[in-house]
Amino acid sequence: MNAPSAPTLHIRRPADGEVLRSVPIVDGDRVRAAAEDLRAAQLAWRDMGPAARATWLRKWRGWILDHTDELTDLLVAETGKVRPDALVETTASCEFISFYADHAKEFLAPERVGAGGLLSLPKRLTRSYRPYPLVGLIIPWNFPITLFLMDAAPALAAGCAVLTKSSEMTPLTCARIIEGWHEIGAPPVLLHVAGAGDTGGAVVEAVDFVQFTGSTATGRRVATRCAQLLKPVSLELGGKDAAIVLEDADLDRAAHGIVWGGIFNSGQVCISVERVYVVDAVYDRFVEKVVAALGALKQGCRARDDVGAMVTRAQVDTVERHVREAQESGARVLVGGSRGDEGNFFAPTLLVDVDHSMACMTEETFGPTLPVMRVADEAEAVALANDSAYGLSATVWTRDVSRGRRIADQLEVGAVNINDVFSNLFAVGLPHSGWKSSGLGARLGGAQGLRKYCRVQAITEPRIPLTTKELTWYPYSARRTAIAGRVLRLAAGRGLRQRLGL
Ligand code: NAD
């Protein structure tokens, strides 16, 4: 009798449903063994310091760029992206490696801290950044490379080992990039495990810090488990990003930007434009321009196509349901509106006459649809944009940038792009964070993006000649307590605090 074969993931090409490759699922025991190996290797990785780690990171970046064609082909095959969308991932994501390789030494340098109070005046105070030994990255299927490198680069640069579980739908390109790490002979501090929720759950148990990117529902489960384990977790979750088009907007720019923001990667971007509010004065002209721009897009998997397939059939079903339910409630489809005959295609779609009673305006669609709603004015647009459980990002379209900034200040989201889409995503100096049900914590954001992978250690040392009796040591005496009281009373006066620089 044959031994039962190990459970396997069958990775299908979204463009035609054919099985591309089968990959064994990594079970809990193997996740634990991988974690042990990584922990052992991390000690030397931590001790080699940021400059030596940066050398390995740059070699890895070189390997990725040398293998761009191979990686892009694989990414197109397993995700159904069109080639230009895939190339954004395989090339632009190297920015994250460059940035953290270049700045890790500066970001990890111990920081001198001011005394802050009279009692610590005789001490030298230092804040020191010590890497978590093992970071777990759990990632979704929409950007298998970008969402891996955004976190792997700072975590590795910080001196952590990294255990990565990519999505069960798209494990191939991520696994290949991690093979590249080993091909260049880098220290064995980076491993990939393939599998679904059970494997992800085992990763959560095995690591010291969890960086999760995925749906809000799964994020809640992961956060609950991390709370039980008292384990730090950072969550990048779903979104329902609003675009606000004002009467003074450059309408050509707004229409093209919003079409790109809603349809790029077949709308499977956490910060896709998912709903559009257009003030009455320019609504008709805006819709006309969107009809023209959407209608001109070509869909398929040929080199000349603009819009590819969606990764999963289940996601196409969600998009179809949102469009159908909206139509049943009175919305009109002006462009697209249906799925393809084969493969995971859904036509780029424009919906109008929508409102907040419809799922297409309140739930994450994660597909190539643009529901556009007419609003009276700026105030109504802002109120509707904030009427959401999510708070990832938003866009504002106006020729008056100071007006854009003022509106940004009223929006309950982690990022606002004025007259553009996605521009915060590759701005490594800015944090990428979701508010409300869109997440907890942040990624990137310069030093913050690397220091989140460190535990902060407080160090004090004497800076005046040592005495055998510190003011606050046992045994207390009435005299010393009285002196301490007087000193503290004096210190409460602003004048002395200012003179001492407190
Ligand atoms: P998902 O939540 O279904 O899965 C994400 C990952 O979690 C997968 O690797 C999955 O195997 C794993 N997982 C599932 N159950 C788990 C468990 N119990 N413990 C640990 N891991 C588990 O999400 P998805 O469908 O793959 O991705 C789409 C979602 O991701 C969308 O909601 C999208 O908005 C979101 N997303 C967010 C960002 C962001 O930065 N905010 C970026 C990209 C995607």
From TrEMBL:
The active site is at E236. CDD domains: ALDH_DDALDH (cd07099). Keywords: Oxidoreductase. Residues 7-459 form the Aldehyde dehydrogenase domain. PROSITE patterns: ALDEHYDE_DEHYDR_GLU. InterPro entries: Ald_DH/histidinol_DH (IPR016161), Ald_DH_C (IPR016163), Ald_DH_CS_GLU (IPR029510), Ald_DH_N (IPR016162), Aldehyde_DH_dom (IPR015590), Aldehyde_DH_Superfamily (IPR050740). Pfam families: Aldedh (PF00171). Belongs to the aldehyde dehydrogenase family. PANTHER family: SUCCINATE-SEMIALDEHYDE DEHYDROGENASE, MITOCHONDRIAL. This is Aldehyde dehydrogenase family protein.
